[in-house]
């Protein structure tokens, strides 16, 4: 590791009488700052990653050892992961989570991309008002509308299933519309204008001009939609709480320990299994995640 | 084939007269139609999944409703019960306010500190950013489970670590006084999203400003106070208000942590363990859920929902106004 400072700007050097000792102290100061910053960063990194390491290590312990103060497994029990699948219908939960997150994301894209397009690349009266309504809907706590929506879905006979959570995405998802709009607004209008001069319809502009350029934005919106539904607990609890056959991983994990009281190692193994898909997804698409977050809070 | 018939349909004379008048009206009408067609899903979605349930919640809040029988008119009884008779409501409101403030201050403050640390690292910042951000993606249920175990009073690593310094660690999730701080620690762990937003805006501050200030002999604190803060103020506001709105909805982590820490064998979110220990983690949305979906006091739960909506609406309006003044949402 080099401890060199960034190249200095080549400003005309004024003839200054500096003692070499002072120069040295400046260099020392920089070195100290560098060491200090990295030390703080390492301490923070341990704080952030420590809990993940700790649950992975606990997941690999024996039943007895998981109840002790030991932090390092004395013997490695990889079979704990297999045992989790025997103790609870994890595969079924996984399938339900995948169905929920996958369909919700697909439906969201079909409905939300055109809406975001209209909010960002077409000019019409009331556009800003509509955009603010999207933000208002995005910030509405889900508990506020839970009662009447539950009544509606109950009347349709769909409570107990995941459909009440999946189907609304066919009519757009507020956060996804918001995120997509933030992306689409950054694509220069000239691309659309030249296509319009050529007489292209808006639909073909969307598909041929904008979509190819908006791939990173669409990827980010899809990722966040998938992540939010995958992590969702309140929705599945409300609609499938009584019907274990349709539980998602979130519900299965939340009630896992209730059934396996003293086997912390298995509970932690289940926790690792539920976290794993999300972590893999992140490493496959780290850039889109980071870009997506930047756009959600910053650019206008 | 198609082109042939198209061409055959076009009478050669139909070039100038009717066409000249039409494009204007036609294109205007067509543009409007395009907007309506593109917006259709959302206009429907807004009506069905936002306006309708909001109005219905308002109606239910003025009724007695148990989900099975039709609602019967109750006037403002639900609201008067809420603020004068409900034995747990102030506890739930207090817990939600406590957690909202702690989580907002914690997340934004800690997010800012971690973001500033990252700006100081030149080459390794990418690796550290990944490490800091990763926990933010953890499913809330998984995070809650992990933290109940990590904060286990006797065997958890955090209390062991405190023990090294001779500090007797608290009982965390098993002590009414420490359950909410424990949830706050967990919220710090997942503060990566705030960090990424703040980091992006910190990196947008022009470096020349710092250089000029440095030449003028401004201290690090003065630079932060007069350059950094004003530059990132809009984003900071966004992060704070967003955090508040998320805090008002706080539900999952509290439900799961309470259930697991209580050792109850019931499904998380059931009446038995909700708010454990001693209702110290009972948030307003949890009490709403308990009233509506376990006790089937749907009318009363709707009144609570209206109260929650009004408080959220205040912060939502603040956020939208700030976004407008920052130019977000105006013509780009």
Automatic annotation (TrEMBL), chain A:
Keyword entries, A-Z: Cell membrane, Membrane, Sugar transport, Transmembrane, Transmembrane helix, Transport
Lipoprotein as UniProt keyword: no
Membrane topology field: Multi-pass membrane protein
Stored Pfam families: BPD_transp_1
Compartment(s): Cell membrane
SUPFAM superfamilies: MetI-like (SSF161098)
Main location: membrane
Coiled coil (UniProt feature): none
Superkingdom as given in the UniProt entry: Bacteria
Gene3D superfamilies: MetI-like (1.10.3720.10)
InterPro entries: MetI-like (IPR000515), MetI-like_sf (IPR035906)
ABC transmembrane type-1 domain location: 94-285
Transmembrane segments: 32-61, 98-119, 131-153, 165-184, 205-227, 264-285
Family according to the record: Belongs to the binding-protein-dependent transport system permease family.
Protein name: Multiple sugar transport system permease protein
Taxonomic lineage: Bacteria, Bacillati, Actinomycetota, Actinomycetes, Micrococcales
TrEMBL record, chain B:
Transmembrane annotation, as ranges: 33-55, 97-119, 131-151, 185-207, 227-248, 296-320
Record-linked InterPro entries: ABC_transporter_permease, MetI-like, MetI-like_sf
Superkingdom as given in the UniProt entry: Bacteria
Main location: membrane
Pfam family, one: BPD_transp_1
Membrane topology of the entry: Multi-pass membrane protein
Keyword Transmembrane helix among UniProt keywords: yes
Subcellular locations according to the entry: Cell membrane
Residue stretches making up the ABC transmembrane type-1 domain: 93-319
Keywords for this protein: Cell membrane, Membrane, Sugar transport, Transmembrane, Transmembrane helix, Transport
Protein family per UniProt: Belongs to the binding-protein-dependent transport system permease family.
UniProt-listed PANTHER family: ABC TRANSPORTER PERMEASE PROTEIN, ABC TRANSPORTER PERMEASE PROTEIN YESP-RELATED
Protein name per UniProt: Multiple sugar transport system permease protein
Protein's organism: Arthrobacter russicus
